[in-house]
Amino acid sequence: MKNSNGLVYVGIDVHEKESQLAVLEKEGSLLLEERIPTKDLGKFLSSLPGEKRVAIESVGFIHPSIQFTRRCPPSRIAQSP
User: Fold this and answer.
1) Is 32 helix (H, G, I), strand (E, B) or coil?
2) Which residues of 38-51 are buried (b: 16+ CB within 10 A; e: fewer)?
3) pLDDT per residue over 50-72, tens digit each?
4) Which among 52, 53, 55 has a CA at the least distance from the CA of 65?
5) Which of 61, 70, 76, 81 has the lowest tally of Cβ within 10 angstroms?
6) CB distance 80 to 57 below 8 Å
7) CATH superfamily assigned to domain 7-79
């Protein structure tokens, strides 16, 4: 995955077993779209180079997801209400 400016936007649709992710450049170009085990979200976010802005679709079990994404700085996290 190549990204020239170092900033990526990550959208995550979190589900109990698997989550769908989309990684985009600032300009909106899709860099990566992938489904991964939810338990591996922290590892996935840590593997992305540079600064990350993360948006997570809110669901009933979202709290643990936010906890492991906060261990992957630098990230900014937004959650739908």
Assistant:
1) strand
2) beebbebbeebeee
3) 888 888 886 665 555 555 555 55
4) 55
5) 81
6) yes
7) ATPase, nucleotide binding domain (3.30.420.40)
Which SS3 state, helix, strand or coil, does residue 80 take? coil
What residue spans of the chain are helical by DSSP H? 41-47, 62-69
Q: How far apart are CA 16 and CA 58, in angstroms?
A: 12
Handedness of CA 18, 15, 45, 25 (dihedral sign): positive
- The pTM (predicted TM-score) of the whole model is 0.72
- Are 42 and 36 in contact by the 8 Å Cβ rule? The answer is no
- Give the separation between CA 37 and CA 7, rounded to whole angstroms: 24
Apex 26 CA angle, 69 and 60, nearest 5: 35
